[in-house]
Amino acid sequence: MEQLVHFSHDHPLKLVQLQPYHNEEEGEEEEEEEDVDEFVVEDHHVGQCNMCKEDIYSFHLCYYTCKNCNYSLHKFCAEIPITLQDHPLHDPNHNITLSERFQDRHPFFHSNQEWTCGVCNHKRKNFFNYHCSSCKFNMDIICATMSQQKIDHPSHHHQLQRNPKKLVSICNACGCEHEGIFYHCTICYWFWIHQDCAFSPTKLLIQQPTNHSHPLTLTYSFPNIDQEAKFYPKCRICDTGFYFYFWIYKCDKCRYYVHIHCASSKYIHFLRPGRGKICKNFKDEDHSNLLYCPFPDESYNLLKHHFINNQKDFVVPQGNHGETLKRLSDEHPLILLDSQTSLEKYSVLLHNPLKKIKLLCDGCVKPITKIPFYKCVGHCGFVLHEWCARLPREIKDHPGHPYHTLFLMLNINELLSGVFGCKICMLPSSGFGYGCRICEYYVDVNCAFLPIEIMHEAHPDHLLSRIDASSISSLSETPCDACGNCLINCIAFFCPSCDFYLDTECAFMLPGLIRHKYDKHPLTLRYNPVENHPSAYFCEICEDEFNPEYWFYHCSFCVQSMHTACAPVIFQCEQAVYAYYKRSIFHFLNVKFETTRLMVGGVHPHLLKLAQGMECHGQCDECGENLQYRMIFECLECKFKLHYECHIVVRLLEKARGISFFARKIQTTSRQIKKHTYSALP
């Protein structure tokens, strides 16, 4: 073993060979074998050189150390001669001599006083220096050894040379502009990395500012093919994308990726959903009725919340003669079921998806899971939540239509079988609604009661304010942070401090917990990838792989996940529902299929039932196109099936002409009409 007797130390120093880096792939293989919970703060750091006072890193490949005491030297510092001749940074005719103490050359100079390096102009004291007795020139040991200061860095296949002067340049590691010391490749003239990036730790824990408990691993590129496989993730800190040639910190198991400069920033000013610990920006006493989202389960919704907190706005029925009940009494004589005995008397079972029991309110089309509620004494299956029976007759100054009063409508469009398109959530609805006949503006009863501001668990401690995205053109390309869909012609909620946006569907229609027949445990709404997830994410319903950067439902016990759009499909698990709609909400969430039946004169002699089109339904008997994923009418007695849109075309033509005819005779006409009417249909 090589030893060195150095003038600066009393003991002999031995040369230590550091483990060289081979390539990044080998490094990654070694990391996989290591315990993932092991945390190394400075993986490259070895110690400090006692001559130049700078750190020794594994990139230097070897160094000298004393086995008896804590004394170490860079190899280039230890081997530098006492006297230098022809140094490039000084007059070649002058020799410069090494000394540990500046006062050796200046006897009247106090030991605690500073002196200035003639090369870098840094102030020094008690520091090794080279001195020229001829011209009183002084140079610190760092500048004297500059040409020997090279590192073997795993990010590059050539040695990197330390730059002798501080400069301002773009760093090829992080892509940011830095001022200070750079290392550059003398062969690849374009490769420059700042000293801070070059000596970044291999593993880094950033739990304090960002809620991630695992150490992140430094990697020297993020290839596009890897980004594509991970659905092009964004930085968890600044929420922007990655360039393949810049360094990142990552935790692959958690799909947690951050820019190197974001991870190492001391002052993180960002406020992103679930990506940082943020300070509360409001006082509780100023917002006593603030709505906290997500709703706890499927039984809670906007209408119920408004009913609980604003009962004065709801009509209180006297006996069975409230405003809403009066209007329903002719067709549906209702009785209040408020006990287990009354449930048994009328053979009613509460909504329970695990037992495939479905009980949806005909007013809001949401599950009825508790008593009391109203039921029609007949056999039609008509049921109402207590609050849906007390709906106010009108709503003024609705944020989506402030110009006119919206009136309660129990059957908005009889021609369209009672199904209408809500102008807020853009979903079809078969329930009650509020509308303006003049402008043909309709909203379902949940979207009729939008709050001004909310709080959401995905963005804790910051208020989200209501905003009409349709009135701000710049928001047309702004994505919802929950589903990624652009905020086009909709009302949304946003945090002005953080540029965090939620559309109304994601804010109010995704409960925090759901039950599903595919899992015996409750499924939790997740806002980010799950820590230590064993593999890629696949929906248990449609079996498609999905991007966990957008919200999804997950069971941590069974390690099962579902699209938010697929999760409500509990009775008819239609494959690829999400892939077709590309939304976070199941398209027919607000449609109660089994209760709508009608006769279409001249088209079919039997009673037709409104249903969701599935693969087994085949083609439409009117236009010949597939019925899958669409609302359809199917015959209860034979195999006749009809698109919902085709049925509308028939009804519109019948009304316009006053005649009945077979749909197959107007196939060409119906297709032409559909082109003009389809965009307006739910």
From TrEMBL:
UniProtKB keywords: Repeat
Descriptive protein name: DC1 domain-containing protein
Tree of life domain: Eukaryota
Family matches, as SUPFAM superfamilies: Cysteine-rich domain (SSF57889)
InterPro entries reported for this sequence: C1-like_sf, DC1, Vacuole_Formation_Reg
Pfam annotation, one family: C1_2
Taxonomic placement: Eukaryota, Viridiplantae, Streptophyta, Embryophyta, Tracheophyta
Domain DC1, first and last residues per copy: 90-144, 154-198, 212-263, 350-389, 400-448, 518-567
Keyword Transmembrane helix: no
